[in-house]
Amino acid sequence: MLAVIVVSGALLWGYVTATWVGVITNMNPELRWFRETLDSLNAFMAMHSLPKEMRIRLREYSQQPLPTPPNRRPLHLVNRRPPI
């Protein structure tokens, strides 16, 4: 009986920990999008056997920030706020 309780507690603890890790990981959707895009770029480069130098240049290029007009910067924050 004790073994069942211990195993159940371990499974519950693992589930709770995995849920919190998932929540924390998805807190920044822009970072998640960037990582998914970079993963897709890496897969594309591997599939097409691009040379190492070109892979490095493409990764560096993808990490350059895009210029954003000052009046557009806070717009993404305003759109995420729930209606009051």
Structural key phrases:
single chain; 84 residues; mainly alpha; 71% helix; elongated
Instruction: State the helicity in percent bands.
Output: over 70%
Q: How is the biggest beta sheet arranged?
A: none
Structural class call reads mainly alpha
Radius of gyration: 21 Å
Distance between the termini: 51 Å
Q: Give the integer mean of the pLDDT values.
A: 83
List the helices and strands and how they pair.
Layout: H1 2-25, H2 29-47, H3 52-62, H4 75-80
Helix pairs in contact: 2-3
Explain what this protein looks like in three dimensions:
With 84 residues, the chain is mostly helical. It has a domain at 27-63. Helix content is 71%, strand content 0%. It has helices spanning 2-25, 29-47, 52-62, 75-80. Helix 2 (29-47) packs antiparallel against helix 3. It is elongated, with a radius of gyration of 21 Å.
Q: Summary?
A:
Helices cover 71% and strands 0% of the residues. The chain is an all-alpha fold and 84 residues long. It has a domain at 27-63.
